[in-house]
């Protein structure tokens, strides 16, 4: 994961990993679904341009969804859940970026993921300090030629 200009927001371009998995599947035409298993992460398909992914997107979420005191972070609640961090902002950022959807689905055509010229599959982690390891799963449906 790469650090952004905003503390506690990291990202990783996972396009190459997903592309490799699709190639190994030998699926000619189909769909690949990529899903994060965490409620404080988000998957998007967008341009992996440094100014955008390292600065603009994180700064946008810092402004729109600050590290304020959220009900999720209530001291009384956290006392009853010792393993739960104060990460209300991370949940809200994930919901906003992913639209509440933990996955992205992409078309496979001619053995390759069909992406536009500037499109990449990017995983954002809004709570990396509390969760150092993240899991993303890939499911491929389709036809062999």
From TrEMBL:
- Hey, what's the signal peptide range on this chain? none
Q: Which domain of life is it from?
A: Bacteria
Please give the family membership noted in the entry: Belongs to the UPF0047 family.
The protein's name is Secondary thiamine-phosphate synthase enzyme
């Amino acid at each position: 994961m790469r650090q952004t200009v905003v503390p506690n927001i990291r990202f990783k371009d996972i396009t190459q990993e997903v592309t490799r998995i699709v190639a190994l599947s030998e699926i000619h035409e189909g769909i690949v679904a990529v899903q994060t298993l965490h409620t404080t992460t988000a998957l998007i398909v967008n341009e992996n341009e440094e100014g955008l992914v390292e600065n603009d997107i994180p700064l946008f979420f810092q402004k729109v969804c600050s590290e304020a005191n959220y009900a999720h972070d209530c001291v009384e609640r956290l006392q009853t859940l010792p393993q739960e961090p104060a990460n209300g902002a991370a949940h809200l950022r994930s919901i906003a970026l992913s639209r509440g959807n933990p996955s992205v689905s992409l078309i496979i055509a001619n053995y390759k993921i069909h992406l536009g010229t500037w499109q990449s599959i990017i995983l954002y982690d809004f709570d990396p300090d509390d969760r150092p390891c993240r899991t993303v799963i890939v499911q491929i449906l389709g036809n062999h030629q």
